[in-house]
């Protein structure tokens, strides 16, 4: 599977979770480790692609030779993705984007006065959905982490976000999803086709995902 070649292709990959500030010392975040996105960036780079990796804060080092953009919030990720979108052929959105952010991040550290405090949240932009409305030649690949109705929810996201493929995982399974070294996924396509993959490492899964993207790519040309 190293045979297929991404030389001359530009791939934008997002990875990790975003952090939404509550006050200067606190944020809302999630359990994303960035492992899946970084493994994909490494695999794409070694197949000859030009890789732009846009990442939330994680404890991994970016693979050698990739263009790296570090972001904190969903809004920063959106800016970075949109700034690069016209120049790329493929987008893989492996990031676990925070769907909501504190409506009014406090300038000073919040004091522990009340027994119950309420935090108002505002909806974040859906970056991938926005790309779906903007896309021309680009292939759009999304991820769907679900805890129920895996196929139905992932199929709905393909339609809503105009994706070419979605990688769906049931994050309740042991050995799948956030912070795990392995993943158990199903690949869905706009046609309704579903491919089930066995449990494998995120590195092995990256190779499979790139093989599938290569197939989508050559069917286009
Ligand atoms: O959160 P959701 O299940 O809708 O995520 C599906 C896909 O959309 C993922 O690839 C994720 O990176 C992307 N997404 C995004 N912006 C959001 C939420 C999700 O780009 N605000």
Automatic annotation (TrEMBL):
GO-annotated biological processes: coenzyme A biosynthetic process; pantothenate catabolic process
Cofactor details (free text): Binds 1 FMN per subunit.
User: What EC identifiers does the entry list?
Assistant: 4.1.1.36, 6.3.2.5
Q: Describe which pathway this protein belongs to, using the record's wording.
A: Cofactor biosynthesis; coenzyme A biosynthesis; CoA from (R)-pantothenate: step 2/5; Cofactor biosynthesis; coenzyme A biosynthesis; CoA from (R)-pantothenate: step 3/5
Keyword Cell wall biogenesis/degradation included in the entry's annotation: no
Task: Write out the GO cellular component annotations.
Answer: phosphopantothenoylcysteine decarboxylase complex
Question: What are its cofactors?
Answer: FMN; Mg(2+)
Judging by the UniProt lineage, the source's domain of life is Bacteria
Location of the DNA/pantothenate metabolism flavoprotein C-terminal domain: 7-215
Annotated CTP binding sites:
99, 109, 125-128, 143, 157, 161
Describe its function. Answer: Catalyzes two steps in the biosynthesis of coenzyme A. In the first step cysteine is conjugated to 4'-phosphopantothenate to form 4-phosphopantothenoylcysteine, in the latter compound is decarboxylated to form 4'-phosphopantotheine. Catalyzes two sequential steps in the biosynthesis of coenzyme A. In the first step cysteine is conjugated to 4'-phosphopantothenate to form 4-phosphopantothenoylcysteine. In the second step the latter compound is decarboxylated to form 4'-phosphopantotheine.
Question: What is stated as this protein's family in its record?
Answer: In the N-terminal section; belongs to the HFCD (homo-oligomeric flavin containing Cys decarboxylase) superfamily.
Q: What is this protein called?
A: Coenzyme A biosynthesis bifunctional protein CoaBC
Give the species this sequence originates from. Methylomusa anaerophila
- Gene responsible for this protein: coaBC
> What residues of the intact protein does this structure contain?
180 to 400 of 400
């Amino acid at each position: 599977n190293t045979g297929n070649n991404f030389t001359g292709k530009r791939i934008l990959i997002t990875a990790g979770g975003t952090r939404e500030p509550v006050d200067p010392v606190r944020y809302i975040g999630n359990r994303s480790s960035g492992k899946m996105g970084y493994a994909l960036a490494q695999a794409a780079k070694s197949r000859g692609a030009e890789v732009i990796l846009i990442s939330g804060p994680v404890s991994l080092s970016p693979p050698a030779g990739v263009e790296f953009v570090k972001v904190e919030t969903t809004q920063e990720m959106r800016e970075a993705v949109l700034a690069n979108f016209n120049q790329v052929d493929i987008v893989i959105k492996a990031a676990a984007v925070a769907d909501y952010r504190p409506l009014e991040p406090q300038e000073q550290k919040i004091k522990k006065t009340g027994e119950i405090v309420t935090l108002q949240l505002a909806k974040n932009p859906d970056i991938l959905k926005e790309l779906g409305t903007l896309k021309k030649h680009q292939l759009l690949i999304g991820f769907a982490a679900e805890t129920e109705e895996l196929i139905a929810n992932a199929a709905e996201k393909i339609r809503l976000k105009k994706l070419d493929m979605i990688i769906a995982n049931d994050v309740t399974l042991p050995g799948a999803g956030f912070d795990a070294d392995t993943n158990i996924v199903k690949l869905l396509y706009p046609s309704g086709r579903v491919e089930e993959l066995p449990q494998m490492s995120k590195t092995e899964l990256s190779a499979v995902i790139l093989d599938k993207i290569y197939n989508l790519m050559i069917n286009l040309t």
